[in-house]
Amino acid sequence: NGAALDGKPKSDPASIEADVLQNLEFTIGAPSNKIPNGLDDKTVYRGVAASVREFLIAAFNRTQDYWRDQDPKFVYYLSAEFLMGRSLLNAVQNLELTGPLSEAIKKLGYDLEDLVDAEQNAALGNGGLGRLAACFIDSMATLDLPGWGYGIRYKYGMFKQAIDAKGYQQELPDIWLTNGNPWEIARPEITYKIGFYGTVDNFKWSPAEQVIAKAYDNPIPGYKTSTVGNLRLWEALPLCEFDLDAFNEGKYDKAVEERRKAEDISAVLYPNDATEYGKELRLKQQFFFVSASIQDVLARFKEKHAGDWALLPEKAIFQMNDTHPTIAVAELMRLLIDQEGLDWDTAWGITQKTLAFTNHTVMPEALEKWPVKVLGKLLPRHLEIIDKIDDIWKDSLKEKILAQIESEPKAAPAKAAKAAAKDGEEEEAEEDEEDPVETALAKYGIITENPWEKDAKVINMAYLAVVGSKAVNGVAAIHSEIIKDTIFKDFYEVMPEKFQNKTNGVTPRRWLAWCNPKLAALITETLGTDAWINETTLLAGLRQYADDKAFQAKWRTVKHAAKEKLSHKIKSLMGVDLPTDPLYDVQIKRIHEYKRQYLNILSLIYRYHQIKTASPEEKAEMVPRVSIFGGKAASAYYAAKKIVRLINRVGAVVNSDPDVGDLLKIVFVPDYNVDLAEVLIPGAELSQHISTAGTEASGTSNMKFAMNGCLIIGTMDGANIEIAQETGKENMFVFGMDAEDVPVWREGKRKEWKDYDPRFVKALDLIKSGTFGETEYFKDLVESISVMNDSNNDWFLVAPDFTDYMRAQDEVDKLYADQDEWTRRSILYTAGSGFFSSDRTIDQYAKEIWDVVPCKQP
Ligand code: 26Q
């Protein structure tokens, strides 16, 4: 681009066109006789991406130079997952290059939209937590906050899902780097050594194995700012490329063995969004990226402030995204003590000011607990450190506990008095008896007995994170309350000041402005400004038009166009024709029992039965519906896989039944991912967020749907509650037990309950009697929600919530028949969604936890 004398490429269409041609020829190496007209979209995409990359890098370099020079406090977002999706359109829009770039591309004989579709989707995450990290770094850049994301450059991301002819989920590897990745900058000069295994002698760790972590930087452009942040991802490489001796001896396998072992660490994302514990490779991954990231930060800190470690908490804060990076507590301690020579107390004081922790789940089985044996073998020095943290932590509570025991004479009778009493006389006599203080302290233990295995201790990583952090937060108001009452109750009681809420948010750029350009244009036209893209609270200005019939008509036209786009997408992916007049009902998220896709499909089975038994008059009254599902089941999660199959089987039967016609269509979109979400969400009119109350920490797609004017049917769970507050609870189809009812039900009421809804029974009967085939296969799935059979069944309350769910669905149908009222509510959803911008979330993190302030180039 003849660039960059002033560090800024030229952005007029002609310069961009010339630059793309240049890149096609020299960066991509396309055959010159085929430039520009004889190339496929994939190749042209690469040429265009190479040009956009120049703009990104120019602004990236200026931002990073400025930050290096200004030396502000940085936040480092440590996350095992960043679910980025595609980058081209986002980069072009954020850099405000869309106009001239489209023109240049047109001149070359191509279309920007087609090129956007040629990009591979960067799926380095499972679902909500990974996508949240991606939204957060977008907002950090947009708010000019000095901050980097740190994670793993997985060679294979989230598996690709195919659905076979019988309706089974099939998992295929996600080979996303085959065409190269134009958005990353390899940094072969930035490497760190990461050790594993070995021994500890007098506090000195000698690892038996070492690998190299190599940095790749991914520039993250903000919107309406010149700030471009950074996502630094680590790749694992062998310390020694090649064992030449082994090679010379003819042992070729051995010669490459070390390479393979090292590369395994960053090879593949664990595709289970709940549990995968005890797997040493997973712990290796966690330590690998955490150690590289902290070493990197400390190295830069030392360059500026050699020796002045007390200053570290004023220059850096690490936000730990769930427990996945919580080995950071021990690693920061190790580096400060063993490498930098600090004493324990100084290091511990610094550590506790430099780390913060976000929890994303209350499901007990999803809380990471590492067997001491596994962690101690892989990271022996870290085990020592964790052990000492555990001791010191419990010691620090002793006085409090003693006081508590003394003040509750009934709870701990004679013993407490004795323990508090004078001398050692009794001690000997009592040797066999438990010390009441020790007993009371047990529940605070970071290292505890494994409830599932005798004599096998585990490290509770969430407890380690809570103790090592300056702040602990949940991700929605209700979730932040629940963690204080349940999993962290004891910790909350002794340090209430640490606990906070930070309700999640999503970037309004990707999730409204860029994915729904027609709606965005209508909003901008109506509000008279596009400032809402960064100031989403301005969306509230739409409220005054909610009753305006002319505006409603425009709103409907836009929604209809999005439904058409969605229908085309499904046609091209699955060959299925979807009519665009019915209500578009969407449930897209990971497949989980707690998310209750089962409840949705059961109600659809009953709907099918109703259609089959309806008179022509009754049929004429029915509200036609298209039901769309999408989501991946973890590969070893059998119940989830059966639900996927059930949805597909029901869809196959319903869609081919001539009695049904356009009254009901059920599709399961294979391989749900970020770029599909960008089409599904704008096209949806109703979305389902129907988790058992108290189980979904927040949910974030609910926010995306709300922004796009999609109504919600949902439980009072996670962020649904706050969305209802912002958009009007009367505008949401709320149903089901709430979080306080659920435990009461589980413990008592269910035992007497026999009031199955006859429609629920009918739906199950249809499965049992073979309407969808495979009765044997679906047998245990059916039994799992049959409360009567076993008091442990139906943990997620599908049966007792069914009746109220059906009531809410009836309301949906009724309201859809009144298009003006439906549209009015749709407008109110978008108008009320301003709070759910990740800019708001990140601003709160910055002010209330991180103490990081914007640093913008003049
Ligand atoms: C753990 C151990 C071993 C292997 C994998 C994992 C693992 C990986 C991913 C555990 C959990 C996850 C992802 C969890 C997740 O996505 N949680 C969601 O986070 C969202 C953002 O806060 C919330 O909105 C959702 O409610 C929550 O389910």
Summarize the structure in words.
The protein is globular and about 85 Å long. Helices cover 48% and strands 14% of the residues. Helix 28 (701-707) links the parallel strand 22 and strand 23 (711-714). The two termini are 25 Å apart. It is α/β, with parallel strands linked by helices and 858 residues long. Among the domains are: 74-86 and 121-369 and 461-504 and 838-858, Rossmann fold; 508-738 and 798-836, Glycogen Phosphorylase B (Rossmann fold). Ligand 26Q binds next to helix 6. It catalyses: [(1->4)-alpha-D-glucosyl](n) + phosphate = [(1->4)-alpha-D-glucosyl](n-1) + alpha-D-glucose 1-phosphate. Its cofactor is pyridoxal 5'-phosphate. Residues 413-435 are annotated as: Disordered. This is Alpha-1,4 glucan phosphorylase. Allosteric enzyme that catalyzes the rate-limiting step in glycogen catabolism, the phosphorolytic cleavage of glycogen to produce glucose-1-phosphate, and plays a central role in maintaining cellular and organismal glucose homeostasis.
Set down the secondary structure blueprint.
Elements: H1 13-27, H2 41-70, E1 74-78, E2 82-85, H3 88-94, H4 98-107, H5 112-117, E3 122-124, H6 128-142, E4 147-152, E5 160-163, E6 169-172, E7 185-196, E8 199-201, E9 204-206, E10 209-221, E11 228-238, H7 244-248, H8 252-265, H9 280-305, H10 312-315, E12 316-321, H11 328-339, H12 344-354, E13 355-358, E14 369-371, H13 372-378, H14 380-407, H15 414-420, H16 425-429, H17 436-441, E15 447-449, E16 457-460, H18 461-468, E17 471-474, H19 477-485, H20 489-494, E18 499-501, H21 508-514, H22 517-527, H23 549-574, E19 583-588, H24 597-613, H25 616-621, E20 625-630, H26 638-655, E21 664-669, H27 674-683, E22 686-689, H28 701-707, E23 711-714, H29 720-727, E24 733-734, H30 741-747, H31 758-768, H32 775-783, H33 798-817, H34 819-831, H35 838-850
Parallel strand pairs: 1-4, 1-12, 4-11, 12-13, 13-17, 17-18, 19-20, 19-22, 20-21, 22-23, 23-24
Antiparallel strand pairs: 2-3, 5-6, 7-10, 8-9, 10-11, 14-16, 15-16
Helix pairs in contact: 1-2, 1-4, 6-35, 9-11, 11-12, 11-14, 13-14, 23-27, 23-34, 24-26, 24-31
